[in-house]
């Protein structure tokens, strides 16, 4: 039995989930993967099999991931004596093809997609969670290839992918093993914001996007990483000069006016 979620128009630029799912696979099952339009990563929770790609075969076992790139043809066959549990995420984005520089099969120490268990969440929420999973996997597998001193870029990208989670300047400083004040000064010099200001900016930008889609203030506070709705309302008013509800009404009015003007232009 399979559970699949198609994610439409999540519009994340770096790592953008478009499909996710999980299933149980019977012994001797053949799974053909032909010329898909996104990068696809499968993770094997349990069982074994063989993955055929690029004219070679790779053994698969519990804890393995196997990658299929856009346009590739591949085949997976489960072992004769093995029931498999699989989960997968397909994604696009500016960083997606970096995954295809890895071996077609690799092992991980823990399940890479914990947000798969929330497949029934609304697509925007699921997309954000899976993007965070992919971003973590990216830096686990490919982080050593990046310039380790470019922590400004790392922090800014991490915040954009993990704004819904608990973030702290202290944690970033500990991760890089550098002085917090020096790190913050360099970040502000390059980005124009302190790290905390940047976190707030990203969260508020995302909050306005969710408000424009019709989400309530309480829902947005939860989706965008605020400790509670009171903190969200206070921060939003401080940065935008009005309450979320007032911004939402103003946005709806401007949208209505814009579409009305478009209609008038089209009829003249």
Written overview of the protein:
The protein folds into two domains: 2-122, Jelly Rolls (Sandwich), CATH 2.60.120; 147-268, Homeodomain-like (Arc Repressor Mutant, subunit A), CATH 1.10.10. 42% of the residues lie in helices and 23% in strands. It has eight helices and ten strands. It has helices spanning 123-142, 151-162, 169-176, 180-191, 195-212, 217-223, 229-240, 244-267; strands at residues 2-6, 16-25, 30-34, 39-46, 49-53, 56-60, 64-68, 73-78, 84-92, 105-107. It has a six-stranded antiparallel sheet, with helices on one face. Strands 3-8-5-6 form a four-stranded antiparallel sheet, with no helix packed on it. Helix 2 (151-162) runs parallel beside helix 5 (195-212) and helix 6 (217-223) crosses helix 7. The longest helix is centred in the C-terminal third of the chain and has 24 residues, at 244-267. The protein is globular and about 65 Å long. The N and C termini lie far apart (56 Å). The model has no long low-confidence stretch (mean pLDDT 87).
How does CATH name the architecture of the largest domain? Orthogonal Bundle
Summarize the amount of helix as a percent range.
Answer: 40-55%
What fraction of the residues are assigned to beta strands by DSSP? 15-25%
The level-1 CATH class of the largest domain:
Mainly Alpha
Order of helices and strands: EEEEEEEEEEHHHHHHHH
The overall pLDDT average reads 87
| Beginning-to-end CA distance, first to last residue | 56 Å
- The radius of gyration computed from the alpha-carbon positions, rounded to a whole number of angstroms, is 22 Å
Integer count of domains = 2
Q: Please give the largest β-sheet.
A: 6 strands, antiparallel
Task: Provide the structure class.
Answer: alpha+beta
Shape: globular
Number of strands: 10
- CATH-level-4 superfamily name of the largest domain: Homeodomain-like
CATH topology of the largest domain: Arc Repressor Mutant, subunit A
Q: Report the uncertain regions.
A: none
Please list the strands of the largest sheet in the order they lie side by side.
1-2-9-4-7-10
**Tally of DSSP helical segments:** 8
């Amino acid at each position: 039995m399979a559970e699949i979620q198609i994610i439409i128009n999540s519009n994340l630029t770096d790592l953008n989930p478009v499909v996710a799912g999980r299933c149980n696979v019977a012994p001797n099952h053949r799974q053909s993967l032909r010329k898909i339009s996104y990068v696809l990563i499968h993770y094997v929770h349990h069982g074994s099999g063989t993955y055929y790609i690029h004219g070679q075969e790779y053994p698969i076992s519990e804890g393995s991931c196997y990658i299929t790139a856009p346009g590739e043809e591949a085949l997976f066959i489960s072992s004769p004596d093995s029931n498999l549990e699989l989960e997968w995420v397909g994604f696009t984005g500016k960083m997606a093809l970096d995954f295809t520089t890895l071996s077609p099969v690799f092992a991980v120490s823990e399940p890479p997609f914990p947000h798969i268990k929330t497949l029934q969440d609304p697509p925007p929420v699921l997309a954000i969670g899976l993007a965070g999973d992919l971003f973590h996997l990216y830096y686990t597998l490919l982080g050593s290839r990046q310039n380790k001193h470019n922590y400004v870029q790392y922090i800014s990208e991490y915040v954009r992918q993990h704004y819904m989670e608990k973030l702290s300047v202290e944690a970033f400083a500990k991760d890089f093993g550098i002085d917090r004040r020096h790190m913050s000064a360099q970040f502000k010099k390059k980005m124009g914001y302190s790290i905390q200001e940047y976190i707030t900016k990203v969260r508020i930008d995302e909050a306005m996007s969710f408000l424009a889609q019709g989400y309530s203030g309480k829902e947005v506070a939860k989706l965008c990483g605020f400790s509670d709705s009171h903190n969200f309302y206070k921060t939003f008013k401080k940065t935008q000069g009005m309450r979320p509800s007032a911004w939402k009404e103003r946005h709806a009015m401007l949208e209505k006016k814009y579409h009305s003007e478009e209609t008038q232009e089209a009829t003249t």
